[in-house]
Design brief:
Strand order of the largest sheet: 1-2-3-4-5
Mean pLDDT: 86
Largest sheet: 5 strands, mixed
Helix content: 55-70%
Strand content: 5-15%
Number of strands: 5
Distance between the termini: 94 Å
Oligomer: single chain
Low-confidence stretches: none
């Protein structure tokens, strides 16, 4: 709902005439809802920016949040939402920072009992509702973007590729291996093979709780991609339960070497490279 030119003019005049009172009261109301999680100086600065942007938009005549004249106000609201989302505030706490203007307007108009004042308050409230909704939507978009970025960062952290010997890299997998994560594993492994020039890669699935057909396909695709880069892959961490599942599902790893543990896989690779290894013999009692 857009304000008429007359309503916009009265809103701008009201906020401008009672500027200090409006900013002070608005800051107090928002500060009470945030319970001291934002400094008074920062909060007052934000309220001042909102106050100024609302007045400028109202002076444009025919106040409509979607209009060109309200562009700066939308920018201020969006920046407020982004900042609050990054600081860990909730969507409700962020929206209250805008909705508090309703209480301020009510206090400014309560002395005027004319029909015009009542209509103005209804119109102003509708406008504030639009501002609050815009703020909420901006907050949600920012939060979704932050969650997506964090998920990507966690995905990268959960799929490390480490160099464990000269010419040997390993990918210790922990947790479920889905399509998105399998793609990250493949990309990071291939990039590490390029960077290190390693001819051998160990894919350790000790931390993978279960291996089904889909997980096996992801692993096989990674092995094939590594082979295309000139590296041989060894799969380690084939526990008895995993082995039984693989057999029951009829999954074929073909000529891919598989080992029960990461240590066995590393020992296998070192033998291939000509490095002598010795198994630790159990001590005999004298």
């Amino acid at each position: 709902m857009a304000l008429s030119a007359e309503e916009s003019g009265r809103l701008a005049g009201l906020l401008d005439e009672h500027a200090e009172r409006t900013i002070q009261r608005w800051t107090e109301l928002v500060g009470a809802s945030l319970r001291g999680r934002l400094s008074q100086a920062e909060l007052r600065r934000q309220v001042q920016e909102l106050h100024r942007a609302v007045i400028e938009a109202a002076r444009g005549g025919g106040f409509d949040l979607e209009s060109e004249s309200a562009g700066e106000l939308r920018a201020v609201l969006a920046e407020l939402s982004r900042g609050r989302a990054r600081q860990g505030f909730t969507a409700t706490e962020t929206a209250i920072s805008v909705y508090a203007l309703k209480d301020v307007l009510l206090e400014l108009l309560e002395a005027d009992v004319t029909t015009t004042a009542l209509r103005d308050y209804v119109a102003f409230s509708s406008l504030v509702d639009q501002m609050g909704l815009f703020t909420f939507e901006s907050f949600v978009r920012t939060r979704e973007s932050l969650i997506a970025d964090q998920a990507e960062q966690l995905l990268e952290l959960s799929t490390p590729v480490v160099k464990i010997w000269e010419g040997v890299v390993a990918v210790p997998l922990v947790g479920t291996l889905d399509s998105a994560r399998a793609q990250v594993v493949m990309e990071r492994l291939l990039q590490t093979l390029v960077d290190t020039g390693s001819p051998y890669a160990i894919i350790d699935i000790t931390g993978v709780p279960a291996v089904d057909t889909q997980v096996a396909q992801h692993i096989l695709k990674t092995v094939v991609a590594a082979r295309l880069m000139g590296a041989d892959c060894i799969i380690s961490g084939i526990r008895p339960q995993i082995a039984q599942t693989i057999v029951a599902l009829g999954i074929e790893f073909g000529d891919i070497a598989t080992k029960a543990s990461l240590a066995d896989a590393l020992r296998h690779v070192l033998r291939l490279t000509g490095v002598e290894t010795a198994r630790r013999q159990p001590r005999r009692e004298s």
